[in-house]
From TrEMBL:
Signal peptide: none annotated. GO terms for molecular function: DNA binding. It comes from the Bacteria. Keywords: DNA recombination. This is Site-specific recombinase XerD. The keyword Cell cycle does not apply. The lineage of its organism: Bacteria, Pseudomonadati, Acidobacteriota, Terriglobia, Terriglobales. Residues 1-118 form the Tyr recombinase domain. InterPro entries: DNA_brk_join_enz, Integrase-like_cat_sf, Integrase_catalytic. It comes from Granulicella aggregans. Pfam families: Phage_integrase. One of its GO terms (biological process) is DNA recombination.
Amino acid sequence: MPTHHNLDRYLEEYTAAASIGEERKEPMFRTTRGRSGELTTNPLLQSDVWRMIRRRALAAGIKTQIGRHTFRATGITAYLKNGGRLEIAQQMAAHESARTTGLYDRRSVEISLDEVERIGI
């Protein structure tokens, strides 16, 4: 599947800022040496990534557990909100059924201020 042009740019900026653009045999995402911010050649493990995401979500005030389905639902919902078609979202998510893809569609979960204002107080 092709990548979004912004992702290409972000990865180019990241590799340039980290000075790792020419290191093709080393991992792209790496651990740091302590809290120094200095990158090692050790790969960032999946468990490290999840801890980092959850730590940052908590710092942002998000108390809901975040997992891979959170990202999948966010991506599918954003795609559909921007005029995407369910059939294409199904292909991108590699789902056999559009019904499965529909489970990740969170558009109906959002309640607009206009709807709330319908309540007569």
